[in-house]
Write a structure and sequence with these properties.
- By secondary structure, the protein is an all-beta fold.
- The chain contains no helices and 4 strands.
- The strands form 2 sheets. It has a two-stranded antiparallel ribbon. Strands 3-4 form a two-stranded antiparallel ribbon.
- A hairpin with a 5-residue loop joins strand 3 and strand 4 (46-55).
């Protein structure tokens, strides 16, 4: 989620990562994102993790 609460990425596959884009545009400047990770293990136990990540970039960066 971005700092305004807009979801920018979701996946149900552990091996699928975010490509660094929002609405098809590469994120090229510093940005704060918030994450929620929900895990259900093989025994059916649920765990939830929340936090924030600050990505630091520049306008000249073409990719992360």
């Amino acid at each position: 989620y971005d700092r305004w609460g807009k979801q920018v990425f979701v996946s149900n596959q552990f091996d699928k990562g975010w490509d660094g884009t929002i609405d098809g545009q590469k994120v090229a400047t510093s940005f704060v994102f918030f994450y929620t990770i929900e895990i259900i293990d093989l025994k059916g136990s649920k765990s939830k993790f929340n936090g924030k990540v600050t990505l630091v970039g520049s306008k000249s960066m073409s990719r992360w």
